[in-house]
Q: What sequence folds into this?
């Protein structure tokens, strides 16, 4: 039995039909919804991460086969393996993983897949490099590319480098997708966790033009009086 066969068999053995049905609704898999066509086994995230850690040496060609699957947990686990591979790689190997990630991002097609991978792979790699790829992604017609762009900047925020988060937030401020509103608001809140002054400087200029969901996420941890101030803009 190959490693690929083994990991797929282990994932299959963990399936839970009740959770699979719930996940199908939670991740909007109905006709016309953003997750349309996705199928689920009903495996929890901790279980998938545990399995991924056991298969960190899975060949990159097999990681790609898992990414190509219509089964959501196959793709999620593949990305967890890719993150684990990235973390233990040399700089040269990391560049190859990033190129692989970008080349195969069409399979990164739900918010949890973006959130579990973008900041740990693309964000980390670009920390001290040219970030033009993020601006290209931020202007993409594909919602998941745009989410990758803003979520990747979480790695920069951790290092208290806020410029790219704020610039990409401005690009996405007129975005019409709820999942982008939530992502941008989340990253602005993370900026505030590091520098409330920086977040508020941005909000004082932009709050009145922000979608309400984006703003609510950004000010979630503010005291009631301050939240009401921004919501009244």
A:
């Amino acid at each position: 039995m190959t490693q690929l066969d083994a990991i797929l068999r282990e994932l299959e053995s963990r399936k839970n039909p009740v959770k699979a049905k719930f996940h199908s609704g939670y991740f909007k898999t109905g006709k016309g919804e953003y997750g349309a066509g996705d199928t689920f086994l009903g495996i929890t995230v901790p279980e998938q991460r545990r399995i991924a850690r056991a298969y960190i040496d899975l060949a990159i060609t097999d990681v790609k086969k898992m990414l190509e699957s219509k089964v959501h947990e196959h793709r999620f686990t593949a990305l967890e393996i890719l993150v684990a591979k990235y973390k233990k790689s040399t700089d040269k190997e990391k560049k190859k993983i990033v190129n692989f990630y970008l080349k195969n991002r069409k399979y990164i097609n739900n918010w949890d897949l973006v959130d579990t991978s973008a900041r740990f792979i693309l964000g980390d790699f670009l920390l001290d490099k040219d970030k033009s790829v993020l601006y290209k992604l931020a202007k993409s017609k594909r919602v998941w590319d745009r989410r990758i762009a803003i979520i990747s900047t979480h790695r920069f925020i951790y290092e208290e480098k806020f410029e790219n988060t704020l610039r990409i937030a401005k690009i996405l401020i007129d975005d019409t997708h709820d999942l982008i509103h939530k992502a941008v608001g989340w990253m602005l809140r993370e900026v505030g966790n590091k520098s409330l002054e920086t977040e508020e400087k941005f909000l004082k200029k932009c709050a009145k033009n922000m979608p309400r969901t984006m703003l609510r996420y950004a000010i979630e941890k503010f005291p009631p009086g301050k939240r009401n101030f921004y919501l009244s803009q």
